[in-house]
From TrEMBL:
Entries under InterPro entries matching the protein: Iontro_rcpt_C, SBP_3_CS, Solute-binding_3/MltF_N
Record CDD domains: PBP2_Cystine_like_1
SUPFAM superfamilies from the UniProt entry: Periplasmic binding protein-like II
Taxonomic placement: Bacteria, Bacillati, Bacillota, Bacilli, Bacillales
Coarse class of the protein's main subcellular location: other
Domain of life of the native organism: Bacteria
GO MF: ligand-gated monoatomic ion channel activity
Keyword set, alphabetical order: Lipoprotein, Palmitate, Signal
Gene Ontology cellular-component annotations: cell envelope; membrane
Stated name of the protein: Transporter substrate-binding domain-containing protein
Keyword Signal: yes
Family listed: Belongs to the bacterial solute-binding protein 3 family.
Ionotropic glutamate receptor C-terminal domain: residues covered: 39-256
């Protein structure tokens, strides 16, 4: 009877050891899978068509498709999210997402807080006015006028060079629509591609004034601590340009390759 009890105990210990070993193996396998895959979470304001915006409750646009293509090159699952523009850098630093892919202009001030990839496109700061506005024919005519811009954008700082009367918005489209409301705004400064897209898609009765005031280079913002991710995203971006995927996405939204 005693021998039988010892035998049962030994068999139980062996079985427990085998189960523990299997559990450990499964855990290691799962961890290894996480390292190879996982989510690539990237953020934008979601209020910047055609670059990032909501369509039928789904986040879409040029930035979203570029971010998705980068994730696939990295062997990761793309997960686009939105964050208010005025707090988006702070949220990146708080590790709420891996990168900002939201048409963010590379500036010296921002470079103090985050790292940027190589520029993935370039565009200009453009002045827009209502179709019936004949008083603003150049940037010199902006002096003392009421100018609308997106809050915490490079356009906001630029507008302050011409006037103290700057109105801020969460969305460029809302600002451009206000140009058609008498007495609300005299002009809007925004990205040239964004303004031209809004005219086409929303049938806005507005027009651009002259050539762009300046050109911005847009980069993908990544935390200063994550140097490996910066290197990997740059490689993925270059691959997309070389294999034609970037051009394909760009043609879809703009009818041309805006990286050139």
């Amino acid at each position: 009877m005693l021998k039988k009890s010892i035998y049962v105990m030994l068999m139980g210990l062996i079985l427990m050891s085998l189960l523990a070993a299997c559990g450990s193996k499964d855990k290691e396998s799962s961890a290894s899978g996480e390292e190879k895959g996982g989510d690539f979470v990237f953020a934008s304001s979601g209020l910047y068509p055609p670059f990032n915006y909501s369509d039928n409750n789904k986040l879409v646009g040029f930035d979203v498709e570029i971010g998705t293509a980068i994730a696939k090159e990295l062997g990761m699952n793309p997960k686009p999210v939105t964050n208010p523009w005025q707090t988006i850098i702070a949220a990146l630093q708080a590790e709420k997402f891996d990168a900002i892919i939201g048409s963010m202009a590379i500036t010296d001030e921002r470079l103090k807080e985050v790292n940027f990839t190589d520029p993935y496109y370039e565009s200009g700061a453009q002045v827009f006015v209502s179709e019936d506005n004949d008083s603003i024919k150049s940037v010199d005519d902006l002096k003392g006028k009421t100018i609308g811009v997106v809050v915490s954008s490079t356009f906001e700082e630029n507008a302050k060079e011409y006037t103290d009367d700057v109105k801020t918005y969460d969305s460029d489209v809302t600002a451009l629509q206000d140009l058609m409301v008498k007495g609300r705004l005299d002009a809007v400064i925004t990205d040239q591609l964004v303004g031209m897209y809004a005219i086409k898609e929303n049938n806005l009765k507005i027009k651009k004034v002259g050539e762009p005031i300046y050109l911005d280079q847009m980069g993908i913002a990544i935390s200063k601590e994550d140097k490996k991710l910066l290197e990997d995203v740059n490689k993925a971006l270059n691959t997309l340009k070389e294999n034609g995927k970037y051009g394909e996405i760009s043609e879809k939204y703009f009818g041309e390759d805006i990286s050139k």
